[in-house]
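User:
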Amino acid sequence: MILQNRLFWIAAFIAFFLDQLTKYWVVQTFKLGETFPLIPEVFHFTYVTNTGAAFSLLSGKVEWLRWLSLGVSLGLIALGLFGSILSRWDQLGYGLILGGAMGNGIDRFVLGYVVDFLDFRLINFAVFNIADSFISIGIVCLLIASFQKKPTPHHRR
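Assistant: Predicted structure:
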């Protein structure tokens, strides 16, 4: 059996692996609340936990969000396995979203929170993680894919 939508699966695996690897590194290297400035007052690594969604939205809703992560992940896996062959941008977008959803979903189920550490202070942004980044990049990929699709002709009667 040839696996269709190969880029989808590769993107999902890489996003998931990098997310889990970086979170493991942060947990092993930093104490909760500790910060390390890479570019002082611009970009830091800061270890925090998040019971909300991406970028600390819906804080404290971990129960609901763990099931949402699972549902999104299962839906995207079904799309990759049983859906039609997707364009490259669709495969990349959906794959990155799947990898990010699985990474944060596993954190929510196992830990009860998500490990965040990317602290972009220049614009006073919420601390986030690699999974959040991949989900955002995946959405941009899907937007690019939507602009590349040819519109279907509409006939008036």
